[in-house]
Each structure stands twice: as C-alpha cells, then as structure tokens.
Amino acid sequence: MIEEFNLTDKSESESCLNDNTNIEKFETDEARLFQYPKLFSSKILLELCTSSWSRSSNARNDIQPYLRGCKWSPDGTCCLTVVNNDGVHVTELPKDLYTGSVHPERTIDVLDSVIHIKEAGLIYDFCWYPGMNSHIPESCCWITTRQNAPVQMWDAFDGSLRCSYRGFNAVDEMEPALSVTFNTDGTKIVAGYKKFLRTFDVERPGRDFGEHKINSPASCLATDRNLLAVGSWNTSISLFNMSESGTFKSIGKMHGHSGGVTHIKFTPDGLKLVSGARKDHRLLVWDIRYYRRPLNILSRVVDTNQRIYFDISPCGKYLVTGGTDGVIKVWDIDRIKWTNSVDLTDDLKDNSTYRFPLHSDCCNSISIHPLRPILATGSGQYHFNDPISVLEDVPMDVDDVKPFDNDVSIESDKKYSSNAENSLVFWWIGDIPNIT
C-alpha cells in the first residue's frame, strides 16, 4: 500500500504530460493506455512469493491456522487474507512486480504480514472497499463480519478499528451478519443475515439501517451496478434490484445446486453470474436475463463444506477455481465457451482449458490481480485426528490383535491426514521471457 501501480511507463507518461502539444492526444487515448495483460500464455506458472502459517507447539490439536480466503486490494498493492484462529493478515506485493516481466530464475520471496489483526471468533466474510487507493489513505479500508460481532471497518495502514455497523433483531439483540459486501460505488454496505438484508450508509456507522425480509439465510452476496445476488444455504440464489435509497425489489430465484451456495460472482459485463456450493462438484454459469436454467455446468472437486473460492479475470476471458484436491482449473473463453453450450448429459465432464496441481492440500482461495498477471492462491483445511492412531500407542498383546493397516480407512467419508499445507502463494501467470 506504499504506492499505486503505474499504468504506463514513467518516462513515457512524463514526456506526454510535459509536452503541451500531446496533451489532447494523451487525453483522447487515455482509455487505451492500459491494456490488461494476456494470461496463461506460457502455460507455466512461476512461483513468486510465499507465506505460510503453522500451529504453535503449545497450542491444542484443534487449533489449526489454515487459510480461509484471500482477496487482492482494488489497486493491487496488497493482499488481504483470513486465517482460521489467527485473524486477518495484510501482505504487500513486492515493488519489483509492479511493472515489467519476471525472470525464470527469480528468487522466491518469503513474505511477512505488514498488518496482523488477531480477531477472536470465526470470520464469516470480508470485503475490500471498492474505491481503495493507496494514495488516498481514507479510502484504504476493509470490512469484516464475524461470530458474535457487528460489521467492522478496519484501517489498511495501521490495522485500527475505524467504526462498526450493528444490526439488531426484533428483541433489540445485536446479531452478526453472515455475509457482507459494498455496492458498486462504495456508498452503502449490504449485509446478509438469517432473515434479513440490511443496508448501512458507509458515512453513518452505528445502528441506522434499511431492512428487507428474506426467506432463507444469506450465505454470500455479489453486487453489480444496481443488481444484488444473494446465495443461500437452501441451495437457491435470489436476484434483487437495488435502488439508490437501499430498498430491494425481487427479480427471481435460481435453483440448481445440490448444496448450500457459498460463493457467487458476476462477470465483468454484468450479464452472467457464476455460483459454487458446498459438497457440490459443479460451478453453474447463469444468464441473469434468462435465469430459469444455467447456461453451463463446469466441474471441480469440492468434497467438504468449506467455502472454495473462484475468480474471474478483469478482462472477462478467464475463470479460475480451486478445489479440495489442490488442483487449479482454468477456463479460457477463447478456447472453450464456458459461458454457454451446457451439456446436461454429463455435468461432471472436465472441459477445463488448463489444470495446474499447485498444492498438496485443499486450495480454497483464488484471487486474480486487478492489473498484473499474478494469481494469489491459498491452501489449507481442517484435518481430523485419526482415533486409531491413539489406540496404536496403547500397549497390546500381539497375539490378541492384528496390527492396523494405515492405508485402510474405517469410513470412506472421513479422511485423516497430517500433511497440512497452510500457505499463501503468488504465481506469475503471464509471459515468461528467456524460458527454455
């Protein structure tokens, strides 16, 4: 968060600004000065930076600090991560990655958190302020909602708590929001609760809010212009028209998932919506104009109730998702029309353009950089302890019992593993020069 990305080369930009004869041309061509880079052109991902978390030696076995989400800031200077039992971390992007390309022999940076907020309780959701700019300190903030706490806004420079937005129920009890997001222009906060959607004015923290009743808990939210999509644990997705005053008008509902919806996201053009659910191996692509059935069904591996994030590139050409198998899947709209041509006869068919086995553990977090060809991935999940290992430590008569076979699992649904990988990794997904 120390400086903003330059959209053009510094010397070129200064020469245009200083030459009065080129000012008019510079203003005319300003919209095309920055062109989003081509992604996955080398078909090789180069590891740039890494950061990891591990349980302290004196902590209980059920204390496991695994990642539960990562999101790039809107200006691309830093990455916000939520770590289970360890609060929120902010990690800055190294300065040498702001411009230019990378060399295949580049040394991998080990990153430290510049801000660490040790929040107690389970963090349900988090979101950057959409107008965040490192040159404007008052715009550098994010909001979180967690267990037994209101919606809180945090300063991205010093990690201090700026203000809170509190929602109260009918008996005047403060209740936590399950999901939270900003509207497109960042003037209002939309928070999803078990029975209500509540809208807060960003400039008026406290308990003043607008309220709209819903029939099922709002597990995740997504906004685009005047549209609001609300995912629920009852497997449905609701569409609302959101007015400037914060009122909602229902448009319709979409059904298709077999589990509770955990993540939804609009495409950059605002015409399509992608959704994912718990214990559901499908990503559904919807056309919000004809939402009765999905446009396409994409496959990934989701074997747990954990939220598995996906992301869409700012250019709208790439859809990237993780999975509980640690494999990153990429759909390129130029190669595979992932936004249409649904095949209902085989909804588990893998038609992804690229597959990258990047992690040995669950890859639950995906975030594409807003300006650079850099992908942030986060890995980790809760690992259960095998109860059989406890019995193995108890002395037994070898004539009375057979040795346990470590390769045999008593229940196929339960997987016991001590190979945990709790890491945040930045990958280069653009052109790699001088590669052999």
From TrEMBL:
Zinc-finger as UniProt keyword: no
Q: Which InterPro entries match?
A: SWT21/TCAB1_mRNA_Telomere (IPR051150), WD40/YVTN_repeat-like_dom_sf (IPR015943), WD40_repeat_CS (IPR019775), WD40_repeat_dom_sf (IPR036322), WD40_rpt (IPR001680)
Task: Give any single GO term for biological process.
Answer: Cajal body organization
Q: Cite a GO CC annotation.
A: Cajal body
Q: Which GO terms describe its molecular function?
A: RNA binding
Q: What Gene3D superfamilies does this protein map onto?
A: YVTN repeat-like/Quinoprotein amine dehydrogenase
WD repeats (start-end) = 254-289, 313-341
One Pfam entry for this protein is WD40
**Family assignment from sequence similarity:** Belongs to the TCAB1 family.
Q: What is this protein called?
A: WD repeat-containing protein 79
